[in-house]
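Notes from the 1:1 (GR / supervisor)

We went over the backlog. Supervisor wanted to see one worked example end to end before approving the batch request, so GR pasted a single chain during the call. The sequence is below; no edits were made to it. Supervisor asked that the structure be written out right there so they could see what the output format looks like.
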Amino acid sequence: MEKKRLKQFQERLTAKRHALAGVVISTEDYEREAGADTSQDPADIASNAYTKDLLFSQSVNERTILKLVEEALQRLDGGEYGICANCEEPIQDKRLEAVPWARHCITCQDLQERGLLEDDE
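Structure output shown during the call:
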């Protein structure tokens, strides 16, 4: 992959990392604040519990993507970006445009989602 293209992906990944880190931190702050107020009525407590569960599930997803973004940046630094972690073939350009932190080509991603690819983590 040419250097200009790699630089573009690096900038996108860095921006995504920054955005996700901010969201994770603000979610953690909200969870701490919501848990600190014990003088609420039962309806407020139930509403806060629901919101906290929702934020927790979103936080888990964002942390997962953040981890994948970090790994993609490491692959960029190591010269392995854009290469499938399984078959070692180039990842399709359209896939990288859509999901710049992708670890697998379309074929291997499909295998992984169907449970047919051994997890390398």
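Supervisor's comment: The helical segments are 3-36, 42-78, 93-98, 106-113.
Batch request approved.
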